[in-house]
């Protein structure tokens, strides 16, 4: 009779394998060490070689079946020896060994000590959950059962009261806990919108930012009359020179960049146990596009004039909307300005764009009655007012510098000494 | 274990060619005519299905993948579906585990993981294995606590012929993680793929320009420290 080919112990924690594919069939001649069969375990695909040269006499485990370590997979009639005339009994025995694991499980899944203890205490091993390597039942698993076994029969016969004992998920490593997402039963008429990769990225970034960074908000009320006047003065000539209209955004960016120079703590990042105040100022401009929110970066924003800023912002936001930005143009921002620009937007606090420590969010510019001292007398006048909200990271920035920065932005905008 | 390890840098090699090369080296190592080898290389775009791969983990039909420049291969390694493309460092380890005194596939897998962690550590990225999953993930407790999807940076899939290993790992260096959008990497829906470049970019010290070469050197050093 032939030489048996067994599923080898591929590792201490490997207790079984699944027959993926036979590379030979019955009657094939094989060389010694020639791969016979592919067996898969969770992350490894193992080819089992022929132990001897000869003819494949019998294949004992079908493709797709899961067999325990040590099970006989095939028999090979070794060269020079005649194939056994009556291998039936041996084959039948081997087949039993190669049955799917579910049937053979209890015997395979306990350490010898545990088996002995179970036998003595008459504990049914199938009812014991294994905590050992590969889900094997150990002495420690059997012990409480054995002690219970010493109690009156009724207690031992009440497995229903112990749901753990009924579980039969042996061998596999426990599945890791999944992140907690809401589950929701769809109702008729509900619309399910799968997240695009960009949406997912934005979502995860928002959660991360709120998680790592304690946000504080502060708001300034800014009289935009000076800026409006400068803009009105240059509106027509700017349009003629540049081919697009001058918006308020470059003014805000210009003022913010100058204030950042004076308050470097707002142009920073938090490391594990240090804060970096960055030399360069690369300003992110949050732009809403059809596809979602993107934040192109104006590099070295402090080196640009007002019209230079306007040019770059126009170019970046245009290309953001037509999806023509390169990955580099979205990287490396050190501070961000968000301009949601919708009517009805008094003010609101943006989420900090990590790993930055501050973000300014522009409110709508609306004419409002405000009190001004004119020629020594208080008077109610009508002015274009914008609320500018700063969110800052309290790990790096305290209230005084944050308010100082915001106040300086306000001062620069209200003084409105802008050269185009 | 006084066995030598030869590290061979192959550059960009089509998947099929690399597979043949591995097979030849597997036979040579089994015959004792070649030393244990670590091949370091990159592949042109290709999607490979391990033995336990499920077709539904391809998000596009094979014809559409082909139109997008991805060849699809079924291969004799463990694991589900994965993707290779330039910018990803691929390492194939052809080693005789029995001769090394480690006839244990799980210890082998853990060794590959540990070496990748060491290489990433040397490159400035803290990474960690994750209980229950094979592969290497970015170590980000804040993201974990916030319930964000774990970010996988390297995949591992190993084959054995007798006790000689083949296949190995794939480490995303400068490969755009969005390349993986066409598949469910490793069949794990709850995992997001990332790259070394991307992870280093979120840290204040910018990623160096020659990241691919540095990753190659770091991986070679880490595996030599383990196996040579």
Gross morphology of chain B: globular
Most extensive chain-chain interface: A-B, 43 and 45 residues
CATH domain class name of the largest domain in chain A: Alpha Beta
What is the percentage of strand-forming residues of chain A?
15-25%
What fraction of residues of chain B sit in β-strands? 25-35%
CATH superfamily of the largest domain in chain A: Chloramphenicol acetyltransferase-like domain
**Which stretches of chain A are low in confidence, meaning pLDDT under 50 for 5 or more residues running?**
83-108, 149-179
Q: Return the CATH topology of chain B.
A: BirA Bifunctional Protein, domain 2
Protein model, in words:
The complex is a heterodimer of chains A (420) and B (228). Chain A contains eleven helices and 18 strands. Chain A is of the alpha+beta class. In chain A, the strands form four sheets. In chain A, strands 9, 12, 13, 14, 15, 16, 17 and 18 form an eight-stranded mixed beta sheet that branches. The longest helix of chain A is centred in the middle third of the chain and has 18 residues, at 225-242. Chain B has a single domain (5-227), classed as Bira Bifunctional Protein, Domain 2 (BirA Bifunctional Protein, domain 2). Helix content of chain B is 30%, strand content 29%. In chain B, α3 packs across α6. The longest helix of chain B is centred in the middle third of the chain and has 18 residues, at 105-122. Chain B is globular and about 50 Å long. β5 (44-49) of chain A pairs parallel with β9 (151-161) of chain B.
């Amino acid at each position: 009779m032939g030489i048996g080919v067994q599923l080898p112990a591929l590792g201490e924690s490997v207790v079984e394998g699944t027959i993926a594919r036979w590379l030979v069939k019955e009657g094939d001649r094989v060389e010694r060490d020639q791969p016979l069969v592919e067996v898969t375990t969770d992350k490894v695909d193992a080819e089992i070689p022929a132990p001897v040269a000869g003819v494949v006499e019998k294949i004992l485990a079908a493709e797709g079946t899961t067999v325990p370590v040590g099970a006989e997979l095939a028999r090979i009639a070794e060269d020079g020896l005649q194939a056994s005339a009556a291998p039936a009994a041996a084959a039948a025995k081997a087949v039993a060994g190669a049955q799917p694991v579910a049937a053979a499980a209890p015997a395979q899944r306990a350490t010898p000590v545990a088996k002995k203890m179970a036998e003595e205490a008459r504990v049914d091993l199938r009812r014991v959950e294994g905590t050992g390597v590969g889900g094997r039942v150990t002495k420690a698993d059997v012990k409480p059962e054995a002690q219970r076994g010493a109690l009156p029969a009724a207690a031992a016969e009440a497995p229903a009261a112990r749901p753990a004992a009924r579980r039969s998920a042996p061998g596999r490593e426990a599945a890791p806990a999944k992140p907690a997402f809401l589950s929701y039963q769809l109702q008729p008429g509900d619309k399910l919108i799968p997240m695009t990769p960009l949406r997912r990225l934005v979502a995860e970034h928002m959660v991360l930012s709120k998680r790592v960074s304690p946000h504080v908000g502060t708001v300034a009320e800014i009289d935009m009359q000076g800026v409006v006047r400068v803009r009105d003065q240059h509106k027509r000539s700017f349009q003629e020179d540049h081919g697009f209209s001058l918006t308020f955004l470059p003014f805000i960016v210009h003022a913010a960049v100058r204030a950042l120079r004076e308050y470097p703590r707002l142009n920073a990042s938090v490391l594990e146990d240090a804060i970096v105040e960055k030399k360069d100022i690369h300003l992110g401009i949050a732009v809403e596009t059809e596809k979602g929110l993107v934040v192109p970066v104006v590099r070295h924003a402090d080196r640009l004039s007002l019209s230079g800023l306007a040019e770059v912002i126009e170019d970046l936001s245009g290309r953001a909307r037509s999806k023509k930005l390169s990955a580099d143009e979205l990287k490396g921002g050190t501070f961000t300005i968000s301009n949601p620009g919708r009517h009805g937007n008094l003010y609101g606090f943006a989420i900090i764009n990590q790993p930055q420590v501050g973000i300014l969010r522009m409110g709508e510019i609306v004419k409002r009655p405000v009190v001004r001292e004119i020629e020594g007398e208080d008077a109610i006048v009508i002015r274009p007012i914008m609320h500018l909200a700063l969110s800052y990271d309290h790990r790096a920035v305290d209230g005084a510098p944050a308010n100082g920065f915001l106040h300086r932005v306000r001062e620069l905008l209200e003084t409105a000494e802008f050269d185009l | 274990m006084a066995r030598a390890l030869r590290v061979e840098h192959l550059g960009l090699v089509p998947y099929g060619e690399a597979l043949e090369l591995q097979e030849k080296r597997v036979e040579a190592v089994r015959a004792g005519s070649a030393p244990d080898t670590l091949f370091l290389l990159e592949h042109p775009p290709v999607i490979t299905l391990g033995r336990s791969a499920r077709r539904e983990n391809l998000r596009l039909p094979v014809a559409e993948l082909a139109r997008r420049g991805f060849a699809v291969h079924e291969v004799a390694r463990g694991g589900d579906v994965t993707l290779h493309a330039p910018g990803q460092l691929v390492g194939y380890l052809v080693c005789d585990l029995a001769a090394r005194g480690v006839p244990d596939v799980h210890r082998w897998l853990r060794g590959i993981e540990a070496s990748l962690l060491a290489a990433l550590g040397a490159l400035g990225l803290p990474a960690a294995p994750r209980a229950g999953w094979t592969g290497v993930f970015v170590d980000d407790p804040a993201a974990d606590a916030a319930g964000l999807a774990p970010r996988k940076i390297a995949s591992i899939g190993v084959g054995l012929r007798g006790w000689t290993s083949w296949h190995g790992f794939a480490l995303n260096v400068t490969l755009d993680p969005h390349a993986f959008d066409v598949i469910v990497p490793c069949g794990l829906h709850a995992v997001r793929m990332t790259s070394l470049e991307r992870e280093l970019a979120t840290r204040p010290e910018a990623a160096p320009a020659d990241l691919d070469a540095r990753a190659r050197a770091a991986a070679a050093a880490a595996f030599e420290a383990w196996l040579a």
